[in-house]
TrEMBL record:
The lineage of its organism: Bacteria, Bacillati, Actinomycetota, Actinomycetes, Propionibacteriales. The keyword Nucleotidyltransferase does not apply. CDD domains: NAT_SF. Residues 45-183 form the N-acetyltransferase domain. InterPro entries: Acyl_CoA_acyltransferase (IPR016181), GNAT_dom (IPR000182). GO terms for molecular function: acyltransferase activity, transferring groups other than amino-acyl groups. This is GNAT family N-acetyltransferase. Keywords: Transferase. It comes from the Bacteria.
């Protein structure tokens, strides 16, 4: 059964296979292959991450971004990265921002996610979002802001399936609020 977990080296091979499924211009972005520790932005490419030691460093830095005391690059807030895995298969990733800057409040929101192309249309994005809500609640986030492009019907449906309440549209983005606490 797919589970949302902290990034792990156990899915190294599958992570690389998922990377190959994305169009080249979006591979690094959708795979979350950027970190911001020490006030610097570091980007990894597939060739670097194919090396086990470098993948291990990437996983450690990605996990370190959740530390509220971490020094992050300008404009970056602490965030928790979670991966949806099924055994040793990497299915997708989710980022949960611990706080919102004015730009994130306007357009970005608390939670962003992506599912590898070969695993889409199976409900995994909804599973990730629903499984992340208790994590958001533990971080004191309630409700969570989620946004999606106005023409992204799949993402809109995911957000609504998780209880998202539509607020408005701004700059081509739909904005939704999702309760994270269950009563």
């Amino acid at each position: 059964m797919p589970t949302l977990v902290e990034p792990t080296v156990a899915v190294h091979r599958s992570f690389l296979l998922a990377w190959d499924e994305f169009e080249p211009e979006v591979q690094s972005r959708w795979m979350g292959a950027e970190t911001y520790i020490g006030g610097e932005t570091e980007r990894w490419d597939r060739e670097q991450l194919a090396e086990p030691a470098e993948f291990e460093r990437f996983v450690a830095e990605t996990r370190g971004s959740a530390d509220p005391d971490a020094v992050l690059a300008d404009g970056i807030v602490p965030y928790t990265s979670l991966w949806l895995v099924d055994g040793d298969e990497w299915l997708g990733r989710l980022s949960l921002r611990h706080e919102l800057t004015p730009p994130l409040l306007e357009l970005g929101g608390h939670i962003g996610y992506c599912v590898r192309p070969s695993a889409r249309r199976r409900g995994y994005a909804t599973q990730m979002l629903v499984q992340s809500l208790p994590v958001a609640a533990r971080l004191g986030i309630d409700p969570a802001l989620l946004t999606c492009d106005a023409d992204n019907d799949a993402s809109r449906r995911v957000i609504q399936a998780a209880g998202g309440e539509f607020e408005d549209e701004r700059h081509g983005k739909l904005r939704f609020w999702v309760a994270t606490h269950t009563s």
